[in-house]
Amino acid sequence: MGKLTELPNIGAEMERQLHAVGIETAQQLAEAGSREVWLRIRAIDDSACYNRLCGLEGAVRGIRWHNLPDEVKQDLKTFYTQHK
Fold first, then answer.
1. Whole-prediction pTM value?
2. Cβ distance 53 to 42 under 8 Å?
3. pLDDT reported for residue 12
4. Which domains, ranges and CATH numbers included, belong to the chain?
5. Phi, psi dihedral angles at 34 (to 5 degrees)
6. What are the 10-residue block averages of pLDDT along the chain, 84 residues in total?
7. Cα separation of 43 and 62, whole Å?
8. Neighbouring residues of 75: CB distance < 8 A, sequence distance ≥ 6
9. What is the 3-state secondary structure (H, E, C) of the chain?
10. 52-56: Cβ within 8 A, 24+ apart
């Protein structure tokens, strides 16, 4: 896959942030995982929120973040709370 904006939940600003933290491809995003990438983004943008974390997870899975299973959302919420 080419541009990261072709992934669900990834707009131009998120793509810019992904590039800023060394993520250039969908494969790199998947290999690093949503949590690791979110932590990298959080290090350069302290406004990185729970929704951004969910958006990254949805992008890894190829779905809109609203469609993530509830248990995944809860796991992400726990992770977010521990790292905010």
1. 0.94
2. no
3. 95
4. 4-83 (1.10.150.20)
5. -60, -40
6. 87 96 97 98 96 98 97 98 94
7. 25
8. none
9. CCCHHHCCCCCHHHHHHHHHCCCCCHHHHHHHCHHHHHHHHHHHCCCCCHHHHHHHHHHHHCCCHHHCCHHHHHHHHHHHHHHC
10. 52/14, 53/79, 53/80, 54/9, 55/9, 55/10, 55/14, 56/9, 56/29
Q: What is the pLDDT of residue 2?
A: 57
CB 60 within 8 A of CB 34: yes
User: Please, what's the b/e burial string for 35-64 (b: 16 or more CB within 10 A of its CB; e: otherwise)?
Assistant: bebbbbbbeeeeebebebbbbbbbbbbeee
Q: What is the pLDDT of residue 1?
A: 43
Sequence length of the chain is: 84
